[in-house]
């Protein structure tokens, strides 16, 4: 017979005991980790500057008795905590970076910044990191209680928003001996996260020309700003001739100053270039580079291309998705109460009808009017998701990876908005955080005790990666963009 695992899965009664034990450990620690999430929410730090948020995670890891490695992959705000001995290694991934410009008070359904222009947790990573650490802590305590061989690792990963920290951590070998990776993301729904994310490169194009008095001697000037504008025109003409699921967007980093009477000698633009897979993305990056060179040629300026970061597309894993789905079905969605629904309803009133429609279209299910998700999205739902990018992509190429979504926000809340920040410490978000920690912890326990599942997950990954293997999208010469905000 083929397909028989090397060691059979545990009998169901024993597996259920394990789940109940690890869930008891989640409940025992949840208040500490909810408090951690709220503290991180209140100290929003962006892209590689998460010094205090990371220190909070380090302190909690030490308090819980993990063996702690700081400066993972040479990144000052990356940390890893390990517990247990021998056996397989299960990785649980957390994040704690915020977004610029999204400062917002908690618990109000109106746009009210705490600090004008300040940062905010607009993607819910305060919850993401705390729930992942809660799950890892419970698995640690379960390992200790049952004496099971195996290790759990919490990876505190900074700079998910544009910094590609996990891609650098993968390149440095931080996941080399992990057999399964588990994570989650705040969302509208209770579901296994669809394994779809675009490969993405961020690149800065810095043009240098020659300054001159724009009225007296314009013929002596060579405008870097002209070059940036021409590059944008070229890229916008390219759009019609690229795959329809590719995405290219840009932001001006430096428009050359505020004086129209000075020919701009320097200008810089940052591009984000995304495609369905790595070869598609790398091809598109080369085309954008050619357009930049064309703009430089037209304007007699020079262009320097600096790749800032890059991430791979996400690979799914059928056996792990089925395992996580089973646990999420058993747990059910978080138990929200009337007060949770009232606040979600107030947030919902600030959304457009299109936001709510889009959320249901993404999961391929008919729209309902409950303000907080109260069902599990089927694994085989006919989804039409809005697809972004994540640095979990790179982990998913080297370790079988699975992620959950838990409803921390009113259904339809678009991410990277003040509404997400406003809901980031709500009782509903805390309930979702604890429920998803239980889903991750039970999936980790299953992976630690079921060699057949690990083998099937490994085989599924090998099939998806194919003969070409994993090639990091990061150019060999670049390191983590620790000072990325500086052009
Ligand atoms: Zn996010």
TrEMBL record:
SUPFAM superfamilies: Bacterial exopeptidase dimerisation domain (SSF55031), Zn-dependent exopeptidases (SSF53187). The keyword Cytoplasm does not apply. InterPro entries: Amidohydrolase, Aminobenzoyl-glu_utiliz_pB, Bact_exopeptidase_dim_dom, Peptidase_M20, Peptidase_M20/M20A_hydrolases. Keywords: Hydrolase. This is Aminobenzoyl-glutamate utilization protein B. It comes from Methylobacterium persicinum.
